[in-house]
Known about the structure:
By secondary structure, the chain is mainly beta. Helix content is 6%, strand content 36%. The chain has a 7-stranded mixed β-sheet with strand order 1-7-6-3-4-5-2, with no helix packed on it. It has a 4-stranded antiparallel β-sheet with strand order 10-13-8-15, with no helix packed on it. A 4-stranded antiparallel β-sheet has the order 11-12-9-14. Residues 1-25 have low confidence and may be disordered.
Amino acid sequence: MNTIRTSSKFLCMTIISFMVIGCASMQPLSNYARTGDTVAISLGGTDSNALVPVLKKENIAIIITDAANNVYPIKIRNVFRIYSDPTSIYSYSRGSVPPHMGQWMAIIDLVDPNSGQPPALAIGPATLSVSSPQIQNYVDYPGGGFPSGSGNLGAIPIQILAGTGSANPMNYESYVNVTPLDDLEPLPQVEISVAGTPSTLIGGGTFTFRYVTVDFNQNGRPQVTTTTPDPNVQLASNYVGQADGTTQLTVLITNPHGFNIDNRQTGLDVGRSLLRSLRFNIIWNNYTAITDSNWQQSLQLVSGQYFDLNGNVMSGISPVVTKVR
């Protein structure tokens, strides 16, 4: 009853329609479940609750405290990010909540993470609690000091019903993985961001990478993308094969209105972007031999620079490449 029992396609639409950014009351989807059932919760925004560019479920733990104060660990099945509809009020407005944030979602099964068995949860009000060094549990954007439990990932209320449920298999859909939510999780990737403090508006940047072609191309070449749905950011990339078995990848990121020198929302109404919108990511398929420890043998930044709105190269700032997943 009231657990997630829909296809993965409908689930994603449902999650987005209930998307919570910032300080709204933190609740699971849905508010009621049996032990063993599947529910979804929001973990907060990329640049608010999340303290790292990409959340990893391996670094997150969730416990449930039932009506009898019994505490049990529960299983995190998937962690992935969703974005607001670009035609929504959140994307349009310039309120106190920072724009263009991705919302991190967790799909959890109310079972033991190791045995997969449903715990003997007492019927009645229970609380889910998220614990991770990568997540800030509470963010008070307006500064109004909202009461405890409002947007607090350490105290997410859920009502436990009688009976024992089962984990939702998430319906298979044609041309989608048989475990479709797995395909929503972030791929291996590096993030290119700005190091240093700019003195004036940034027009964009240009970057040259070189990668070992065979390390990627046997399973698809690396792709360049942004993780900020800012419509004013323009991103372009070009691939040129080299005679030595490598590929040269050139990336251009720009905003003709400029990127701010920080993340204050000044000028967004005339098309500017936040400084954090200047970052971009290079992603690749899961099925490679590239790891967190050896990725620099396969992909290197050859050169990179930022320029101002007049096209002049800027000093004092430089690109930094970080393996984030």
